[in-house]
């Protein structure tokens, strides 16, 4: 289970430590030193998880959280990782929409475990790694097979990975950067046009349309969203 995580932390060493812990667990991380820098990035990118410090330049962690909950197209899990240890701070963060709260110094295994826990709660479909069904589609993850109306659809490896990703994240807008990173890897030399080509193929091969209960939409200058609709 791969998470794309944004870390708001103005202490470079601390940010590197958190990023390394998550990277060692197989996740992708992007670090930001100021609240405004993160907010600007969130205007064009999507993440699976946000780790927020409290006292950072420009915008505080709570101010960033308020912006996230009021402005983003979808709800992203948020964990505070901060030296603020008062009961009032913890209550304020949780009341304003944070999913968890860790007081520094944090422990490596606990951080990774809590990050995965809030991610799973936000993406309950991931509870089963073997597969899932969204009629008339059925995904068998272990066999890397997708069926439509009981018939197998022939997909390339990348097409299967992409189809699985957008179906599991249905209802959520996914930025092109997020899609590229998840399917092709962070350092892959791939242009965004590649995404458009693969999405076009999936739309055709999987017959994505309202008659099959789904709709694949392009969000201009941002990314894509797969939605469940009434057939």
How would you characterize this protein structure?
The protein is an alpha/beta fold and 231 residues long. It has two domains: 4-122, Rossmann fold, CATH 3.40.50.2300; 127-228, Arc Repressor Mutant, subunit A (Orthogonal Bundle). It has eight helices and twelve strands. The chain has helices spanning 12-24, 35-42, 61-71, 87-95, 108-122, 157-168, 176-184, 192-205; strands at 4-8, 28-32, 49-52, 78-82, 100-103, 131-134, 137-140, 145-148, 151-153, 174-175, 214-219, 223-228. The protein has a five-stranded parallel β-sheet, sandwiched between helices. Strand 4 (78-82), helix 4 (87-95) and strand 5 form a beta-alpha-beta unit. Helix 6 (157-168) packs across helix 7 and helix 6 (157-168) packs across helix 8. The two termini are 31 Å apart. The model has no long low-confidence stretch (mean pLDDT 92).
Which features characterize this protein?
231 residues; alpha/beta; Rossmann fold; Arc Repressor Mutant, subunit A; five-stranded parallel β-sheet; 8 helices; 12 strands; elongated
Strand content: 15-25%
CATH topology of the largest domain: the name is: Rossmann fold
Radius of gyration: 19 Å
Output the helix-strand order. EHEHEHEHEHEEEEHEHHEE
The figure for the number of domains is 2
How far apart the termini lie comes to 31 Å
Largest sheet: 5 strands, parallel
- The CATH homologous superfamily of the largest domain: Response regulator
Strand order of the largest sheet: 2-1-3-4-5
Unreliable sequence segments: none
The helix-and-strand class reads alpha/beta
């Amino acid at each position: 289970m791969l998470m794309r995580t944004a870390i708001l932390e103005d202490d470079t060493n601390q940010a590197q430590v958190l990023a390394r812990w998550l990277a060692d667990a197989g996740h992708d991380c992007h670090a930001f030193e100021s609240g405004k820098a993160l907010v600007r990035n969130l205007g064009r990118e999507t993440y699976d998880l946000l780790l927020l410090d409290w006292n950072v330049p420009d915008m505080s962690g709570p101010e960033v959280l308020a912006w996230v909950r009021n402005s983003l197209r979808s709800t992203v899990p948020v964990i505070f990782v901060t030296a603020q240890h008062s009961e009032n701070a913890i209550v304020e963060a949780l009341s304003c929409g944070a999913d968890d709260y860790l007081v520094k110094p944090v422990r490596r295994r606990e951080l990774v475990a809590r990050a995965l826990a809030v991610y799973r709660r936000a993406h309950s479909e991931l509870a089963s790694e073997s597969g899932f069904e969204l009629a008339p589609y059925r995904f068998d993850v272990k066999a890397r097979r997708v069926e439509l109306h009981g018939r197998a659809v022939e997909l390339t490896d990348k097409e299967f990975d992409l189809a699985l990703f957008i179906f599991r994240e249905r209802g959520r807008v996914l930025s092109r950067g997020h899609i590229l990173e998840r399917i092709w890897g962070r350092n892959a030399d791939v242009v965004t046009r590649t995404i458009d080509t693969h999405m076009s193929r999936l739309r055709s091969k999987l017959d994505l349309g309202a008659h099959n209960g789904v709709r694949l939409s392009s969000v201009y200058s941002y990314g894509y969203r797969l939605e469940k609709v009434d057939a």
